Structure formats: structure tokens, C-alpha cells
Batch of 2 targets.
Target 1
Amino acid sequence: MQLPSRRDPMEPVAAFVGAGFSKAFGIPDARELWRFGLVPAIGSVQIAAHLEEAQRGYPLREFIERKIEDVELLLTPWSTWLDSLEQSPGLERIEWVRRRNLYEKYLVNLSQHLRERTDLASQTANFRELAVRFRKVISACGVALVTTNYDLLLENLVAPSGLPCSYVDGVDPAVRLFKLHGSVNWARIPNNLVDPENTSPVVLEKTDDDRVEVVASGKPFELALGGTAVLIPPIAGKRYEGLFRGGLKGAFQVLSKADRVLIVGYAFTEADMAIRTLLERTIRARTRKRTALRVVNPDPVAIARSVDVLRGGQRSAESTITVEFLPRAWIPEDFDWLID
């Protein structure tokens, strides 16, 4: 499908969306992910057995007994515990791998749930309305997307335009999409299990030994083959390495060059310093060209954090930058602002 001519590609726009965007379509946020992770997704017989074993040990047992339902409070000590076990001289490697596997299966299960919820959300009338509006944005100008969300709503939003989403540079024409915390359709698998003729995956990254690849696919084949989910879990002290470091760099480039940036549903959490720094640097980099930013979030705490981050960057930039804060829920018309 051919799109109408775009305006000057030197004047692109960008949208940065957080959990509040997806939650409007029924996708669970970080706190709600806890209970989804404990219930096996459809057809996950093997994962069900792993979850049952995990719930009998630390940390799941203690969190269930105390009725704590916060996925960050769960995964942070779980991840830290596994890291400490890996360094323990008294623990056999095979035992550490088994315990690590429980953690990985939990993340795979979360990914499968989010894929299922994405499919349901994409069928709603509200989503279809937004897709129509977003197609107009894509038709009018060069647009880039940045998100901290794992789900596939943005991919489905772009699909009606007929253009693919590109997670890495070098694919044109495409809508550039930087998923800073990973995606439910990314997986790390041995390359001998990748069959390009049957699955047509996009290879995003290879390890140094060329034996493991990070791939993206529209189908969950990679997880069924025993792959692990490629996500930065919602934990304190997130690590941005390899593919994720490149994502931060790419996001900075598109956000700092866009003359309009819409930020929807992002909480500006204090624990995620990498993202806060990214957004502040985006402001500081804009010293020669007029730029407009709009932040939309109904949470007054998130608005206060956004003011702190973005005003901090604005103080070191020229007055050609305009930042607008809207303390309300986002609406589909907000995306019209990108091209109005």
C-alpha cells in the first residue's frame, strides 16, 4: 500500500509512550503483572510446572504468604538472589541454572499473557479509531516511536499504514520503533533453532560466539523452542547493555531531532535514571531549532516528575524549546497534535 507524499523528512515528529498508554486498552501495568505471571498462559503446560515449583521456594513463597502484589518488589530480590547464587562457591552450576530457569519461565509466561492481551486490545473500536488517526500522522511526516512497554500495541498501530516497524537502523522505508525495555516478540535462542524459511525472524543481535541470536517475530515460535524472553524486567537498578544500550542511543537521536515530541502515559519513575537522563539530554541537545514537547498524564505525581526532568534540561537549552504539561488522561486527538 503506497502512502501519500510526506512533508520534509528533515522535520520529523516522535511519540514516547509509557504504561499509561497501554493501560487505556486494558494492558496490565507493572503492578498488575504480578498476578498475571503466576497464572499459566493458554497452552503453557511446561511453564505451569515451573511456576508450581517456583511458588514453593524463595521469593515467590514469601511474597504469596504476605499477599504482596508488586512485580518490582518481587523481581528485584529474585534477580539479586540469583546473581548472588551464581557467585556462590558451594552451589553447583546445574542447580543455579535450574533456579535461573524458573525465573526465565516466569518472564516467558508474562510475555505470553501480554501477547494475548495485545490481540484483544487491538480488536477494540477505540484502538481502530486511533489506528486511523495514526495512519494520517505517518502519511504526513516522518514519525518515530519510543516506548518502555513490552506489548505489541505500537506494532499493531503502525500495521494499517502498510509500513513495517524497524527496531534497528538500516530498514527503509519503515517506522522506527525503539523498545527501551524489550518486547514480547523478542527472544534469545540458539541460532541452530532459527529456520528463516519457516519463521522469517529479524535478527536484532548476535553474541560474540555467534551461537545465540536475539530475534523478533510476529509469532511466538521462539519461546516454544525454548528461547528466553528479551526484556529488562521491572526491577530497581535496570541494566542497559548490548541491544538495549543501542536502543537508548537510537531513541536519543530521533527524539533530539524531532520538532514535535508527544509523551503519553510515562510516569518518569525516579528509579529509572537511564530514561530520565535520556529525556533530559533530549532537551539539552535542542539548541538551534524550535521544538515543542507535550506531556499528557492524569497522575499529578508523574506530571510533577516530568516538570522536574524536562525543566531541568530546558534551563540549559535555548528559549526555542516549548514544553506543555497536560494533567489529564490521553485521548486519540492528542496524536493529531503531532501534525497540526
Target 2
Amino acid sequence: MKKYFLLSFLIASITFNFSSPAQAAATCAAGGTCVVGDTGPGGGLVFFVKSTGAFNVSYILHDDFMGDQTFSSSLTSDQQAALTFDYLEVAPTGRGAGIWGVGGLTTGGTSLLIGSAKLNTEHILLTQVGVAANNAALYADQYSNNGFSDWYLPSMDELRLIMLRVKLGTFSTDDFPLGLWSSSDYGDAFVAGYSALNQLQGTPTRSAGTPGVRAIRSFSIAPVVAPVDETDSKAKREELVRKNQDSLVSTFNNLEAPSLKLFQDSDIAGVTSSNVEEISKALITQETTAPITMSLLLKTVYKFVTIEKLSDNAHNKSVYTQQLVDIGLIEDSQSQKGWITNQLRKLVTTKMDTFTKASDQVAILEKQVQARKARTQSILTKIATRRSTN
């Protein structure tokens, strides 16, 4: 009787264990939670995970000749909160060396920020019409992997973040042997942003044939479902974004302030609850009588975002001289613009939190530059006079 009871108990236990298996958590690729380094739904490496608060990844490059240089990819708290996705993944394969495209200003402009690559790519494709298949943005737009075709060319901050992950040992150097093109053109008609392991920041000419391409895509926590008609879905979304952008421009031309949601629905990166009113006011009260265009709107947003970064001591090392030239804060002809940029980074935030305040500080620094030049010239003149009299 005891043997029969023990056997019955064991059978019941075995049956219970087989009938109630533990449910395994979904992987990142299957729509579960992701961490940096995971394989995403598109088969790529996850390199950005949205979180709360400010975001910053930095790497200090030690150079005996140039001194220490800090390279960063960052977002303010508001910028990160405004992102409409949870993750970014970089494609497992890409295009080898080839050009970025042809010369010419990009219709609508481009941004450097994390989260701006999709709109950058769309703007580049509108401008680079008829360019051969080695156009970097066109390659990224047409890339497909694991059933997903919603890929695009990374912005400069996104591309730099990928390279920083390699430098910090998160990704293998074997995964990214080539320098890569970004979708950020810095408002220049002839160059584009570039990043490589041996040069984290560069702006080669668009016809340079050395850089390669790695597309990226954004996604959120959701069950992965094979798209029924990915092309049709993508086209509908792009059409909706274009309509929202037209509505945004129309609102400004009617001298009305649009909502933050309309900015977000228009895929305008960098506009947050803390700066939307200032951006709107700047556009509505502009001195020119010319109608507001999407290009002017994006340049204004870019100007405010750059000033916000510059006034944030935790992230202003990721603001570069060319950006300050692009927004009109420093003249391109200023021979000491690199020195002025470094001095601006050292100022307290209250002196830099508006474009006007930043301009005042630049004017002070330019006077210092002129004073230094005058002193140097005076010394050289005295030396030359002494030599001539001896």
C-alpha cells in the first residue's frame, strides 16, 4: 500500500510539472525588454535604450600632442522624454566604401540629435533626387533585414554613439571596421558628418569614397508581427508626417503657436515642453516678412537645441565649433573660433541660457582675441625695431 501511494504521488508530481511549465520571458528580438548589446527585432545590435533623465555617453581620447579630447552623445531630460521610441538598433550588415551623395543644400535641413535620423534621411532623399544607388541615404532607406524595411541613415550623434560603444568595449571592433557616413550635413552644401574608430568626428566632402554605411531603425516594446505590407504602411506614415509638417508650417504662417504634439507628430526632434514656447515665439516674431518654411523652422529648432546643449555643463562638450558657426553665434571667418568655443564651454549656465546672452559672451571673447592679437603685434614690432637698430 505504501509503495502504491508513493508511486501515485510521483506520477502526480511529474504530471503537474509537465502541465505547468514556467513561461520564459520574451527576448529583445521577440518584443521583450532590451539592453544595449542585445539583438533587436531587425537582427541588429541595440545601441540606445530610452530611460528617464538626461542621457550621456562620453569617451576621453588621450593625445600627447592635442591634449585630452572628450567625445559625447547626449540628450537633455526633455529631449529624451520627447522621443517616440524605446530603442535604436544598428544593422548587422552594410554597404562598403562609397560616396555620401552630390553637393547642394538639403531640403528642410538636417539635425545632429539622437532621434532625428529618420527625418534627416527623408530630407536627403528629397534633395538627392536622381543620384545613383551609392547615395548613402538611399542605401539605408532601401535596406531590409529580418522582414523590416524601416531603416534609415543615422544622425551624427547616433553614429558617434555607436562608435563610442566600441571604444568603451561594449561592441567588438570587428563589427565596425570602417568609418561610416551620417545623415547630418551641418548645413553645409558640400560635406557630411562621418565617424570612425580612429576619427570619432569628421566632415569629409560628400564625394569622398572611403566611408561605408550602416543603417539604423527605431522600435518600441511590442510583440513582433510580420508586416503585411511594409511598403504601404511606410508610405502612409510618411504621407501623414508630411501632412502634419504642412499643418505646422501653415499654423506659423497664420501667426499662431502650434501645440507640442503637432511638433512631435511632424517628427521634429529636439522640441520639448521646456522650449516649445520660445521656439514658437522666435518664429512668429521674426523680422523678415518672407513666409515660414520647413527649412527655416528646422534651422530655428536646431539653433535653440544647440544653445540648450551649450548652456548645460554636463553635455556642452558635445557642442562643436561648426555647430556654433551654423547657428550664427560665431563668424566662420573668426580665426580663433575654436578657442572661443572652448571658452564658452567653461562659462556658467546662467550666462549661456539664451542666444542673446551667448552672443554677448562671444562679443566679449572676440574683444579678448583682438586684445591678444594687438599685444602680440606690439611685441613683434618692438622686436623688429630692436633688430633694425642693432
